[in-house]
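lol ok so funny story. i was supposed to be doing the assay writeup but got distracted and ended up predicting the structure for this chain instead. priorities right. anyway since i did it might as well share w the group, maybe its usefull for someone
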Amino acid sequence: MADIPEAELDDLWNEFHAVVNMTSRELSDWLMTRSAGEQTEEVPDQSGTKNGRRVLEILGKRRTDLTADDIRVMRKVIDVVTTERGVDMEPTAGEAHWRHRLMTLGHDPLKPLASDAGGTRAQQQR
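and the output, tada:
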């Protein structure tokens, strides 16, 4: 496990799982869809962006199994999404390119944050 204080890890874990408001299944499907072309389709394990695949890996982990690299990716995702979305994070439409870029990180701006979606992340289907 990564070497950061337990309270900080708890906060990071909770914030990451609130900001990443797509389920593992939704993210996996999205990454495969984005990678499919008219002539070719990537191998499922290699579809999507590197960061998108890392988010998907982290969603499949337990908190106690996180590595230092996982923590770095989680912080980056939180930073990108909160910078792009602002403070309120209310579901909002935007340009398709902007939405699709955020979706490669597991955040759909048209959906409420996971903490607002009527249940904890663990209760949602993954």
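The radius of gyration is 14 Å. Residues 117-126 have pLDDT under 50 and may be disordered.
back to the writeup now i swear
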